[in-house]
Amino acid sequence: MTDLDIELEQFQSLLDESKRAVIFTGAGISTESGIPDFRSPGGIWTRNQPIQFQDFMASETMRRETWRRKLNIDPSIRAAEPNRGHRAVEKLVRIGKVSAVITQNIDGLHQRSGVADDRIIELHGNSTYATCLDCGQRHELDEIMPQFEADETLPVCRVCDGPYVKPATISFGQSMPEAPMRDATQQTEACDLFISIGSSLVVYPAAGFPVMAKRNGARLVIVNREPTELDAIADLVLNREIGPTLGDIAGVN
Ligand code: NAD
Ligand code: ZN
Asked: Is 124 a catalytic residue?
């Protein structure tokens, strides 16, 4: 048996021994769907520094820049289809192995792969719609983008007239959404196996969940092409491609 086979067998036995696993995903699970991650070569950050929440609130110029970037990235998110990694995750949830998918992703691909909404915990929001930061009203992108594309008119809330209509993602400097943080904590504390997939594990508080799982006695498996910040505390690290690895484990194509 090769080292790779041995790793897969170890992963399989940890999964077999688990009564309640949690999956935690990052941008890496969606690169095979054509959505770039942040930190890989060619990733989004090698081209654009992120816009801080404070800057979005303070300046119309930054709000405009936010919507320009949104216009730029949106077609690739809309065009993306779930890949083998998403399908494997969906199957593990469906067969009852995995109780919840905690995701840092904002692309909605776990939902599109068929995982029920109540099994998905979005820590960083969702980029497929917008919200008014004053009153919480949801705004559909189709109501906003055509006007912005035409003459860069910034969206204004139709309910409260507020000027802070923002893609429903959590920016750096913005407070974390309460309900998802609470649900993710609950799920993490209840699991006996925590599987981190495609995350560099450098963004906090999200990366605190694998640490919390470990402290609570769960096993920790990390699947990521490159080393992560938390490899040292993991029970098993698989530096491999996500789609083929999870596809083999879950038996999906
Ligand atoms: P990250 O970019 O910091 O790390 C992604 C990791 O995935 C990298 O270490 C990379 O080596 C690995 N990777 C990429 N493709 C892989 C593959 N096919 N197989 C194996 N490993 C692969 O991502 P992060 O930890 O999720 O943190 C970035 C933040 O960016 C998150 O908060 C997230 O909200 C946001 N983000 C989301 C998306 C998305 O929704 N698809 C895309 C970009 C960024
Ligand atoms: Zn409003």
From this structure: yes
Greatest Cα-to-Cα distance within the chain, rounded to the nearest angstrom: 65
Closest-CA residue, ligand 1 atom 14, reads 28
Rounded to two decimals, the pTM is 0.94
Tell me the residue type at 202.
V
| 86 within 8 A of 109, measured Cβ to Cβ | yes
Separation of alpha carbons 237 and 9, rounded Å: 13
User: Which domains are seen in the chain, by residue range?
Assistant: 1-34+81-123+176-253 (3.40.50.1220), 36-79+125-169 (3.30.1600.10)
Closest to 144 measured CA to CA, from 51, 67, 65: 67
Tokens matching residue 140: 């559909």
Distance 38 CA to ligand 1 centre (A): 6
Q: Where are the alpha helices (DSSP H) in the chain?
A: 3-17, 53-58, 60-79, 84-94, 109-112, 141-151, 178-190, 208-215, 242-250
Whether the Cβ atoms of residue 168 and residue 155 lie closer than 8 Å to each other: no
- Residues composing the chain: 253
Residue with tokens 């999956």: 23
For the segment 198-228, what is each residue's pLDDT rounded down to a tens digit? 999 999 999 999 999 999 999 999 999 999 9
